[in-house]
Design brief:
- The protein is 4% helix and 43% strand.
- By secondary structure, the chain is mainly beta.
- The strands form five sheets. A seven-stranded antiparallel beta sheet has the order 17-16-20-21-22-19-18, covered by helices on one side.
- The two termini are 44 Å apart.
């Protein structure tokens, strides 16, 4: 099944000889629901001219409103879990050509849609694959093994469009022990990045297909940070899935108070109290921010930083936040052997509860 990543345009083109127009029927529904019998949207266009019959449609904006990544997956010792159905959408697209009001079906394709994006350098309608994470080496904070259910102790998870007889293989980085999770059915599933038996050592994570080929491979290594309290960051990555990273070194928190000032009327003009304020304030509230350092990281960590900076959904230490850092110097190991990144986040809520 093909995939759509809705933060980039997904272009449907219809260019048939003799057509005077075209139509696209777009049906959108959530996993587990019954597919609607009538299209969610019907889009039509006339051709620009008889010598230029090409018509195009960008369907991504119509699909995005059906995806809501409300919370992280939070896995640590359960495997092959169905992804929350609101985190993606099923989409059926039917293409029709129109010849003087007579519509003919050209094709009928079903997709899975995620709130991710391709890059300009990858071209249009890019399919980012069925594992919603980039291959590479990742780190996680060595957890307190007695409190694995605490959010800060989780290493993160991986979202996969599984196929029948896939295997998710965990290989312990210390002793090479292999643990396999076999997938009997297709679906959109979530797996912990690190098998709960490998948390002290880390593991290699592989997706093995039914013919025993390796479709994906990443390595997850623990970092033991005893001096500082690491910041954990959850964000929706470029694939439209929740991802987790850590800033391990020194961090600073800031609190800012705000208010509006006005000149107040005194109770008396001739016999006022000198303790009564002439200038007053109202609409008090506060905001908080946090700044952290990654510590020494590999050169490819810059790709995670870019995805965090472009993410529309970020949690810092479990709280909604907006990244305040708008630019970074992408560091190269050949120039700087000690690569460190500093990021600042503003927590996306007022300090005082003023929701009405």
């Amino acid at each position: 099944m093909s995939r759509i990543f809705t933060r980039s345009p997904f272009i449907i083109d219809i260019n048939e000889s003799g057509q005077t127009g075209s139509k696209v029927e777009l049906t959108i529904w959530s996993e587990g629901d019954t597919e609607p019998t009538t299209p969610t949207y019907t889009l039509t266009k006339n051709v620009p001219s008889s010598t230029d019959p090409l018509t195009t449609y960008n369907v991504s904006p119509f699909i995005r409103e059906y995806i809501n990544l409300s919370n992280t997956n939070g896995l640590f010792n359960t495997y092959n879990v169905d992804l929350n159905s609101s985190y993606y959408a099923n989409v059926r697209i039917k293409r029709f050509k129109d010849i003087s009001g007579s519509f003919s079906l050209l094709n009928n394709i079903t997709y899975k849609a995620f709130d991710g994006f391709g890059l300009f350098t990858e071209g249009y309608n890019v399919d980012l694959g069925r594992v919603l994470l980039s291959e590479g080496v990742y780190t996680y904070h060595l957890p307190d093994l007695n409190n694995l259910s605490e959010d800060k102790n989780k290493a993160g998870d991986v979202t996969i469009m599984t196929e029948v007889n896939d295997i998710v293989r965990y290989t312990n980085l210390s002793d090479g022990t292999i643990t396999n999770e076999t997938i009997p059915t297709s679906g959109v599933r979530v797996f912990p990045r690190v098998h709960h038996t490998n948390l002290e050592d880390g593991n290699k994570f592989q997706l093995v297909n039914s013919t025993f080929g390796i479709d994906f491979e990443a390595t997850f290594k623990p970092v033991c940070e005893k001096k500082y309290t690491p910041i954990f960051i959850d964000y929706v990555n470029r694939f439209g899935a929740w991802s987790r990273t850590f800033l391990y070194k020194v961090s600073n928190e800031t609190f800012n108070a705000s208010s509006k000032d006005f000149n107040s009327l005194h109770s008396s003009l001739v016999n006022y109290s000198v303790r009564e304020a002439q200038m007053s304030s109202f609409n008090f509230n506060g905001s908080e921010s946090i700044e952290g350092n990654s510590g020494f990281v590999s050169e490819d960590f810059s790709e995670e930083i870019k995805q965090i900076m472009l993410s529309e959904r970020v949690l810092v230490n479990g709280r909604p936040a907006k990244i305040d850092t708008k630019s970074i110097d992408v560091q190269k190991s050949i120039n700087n052997r000690n690569i460190n990144y500093k990021l600042k986040f503003n927590f996306a809520n007022n300090y005082m509860n003023n929701i009405v």
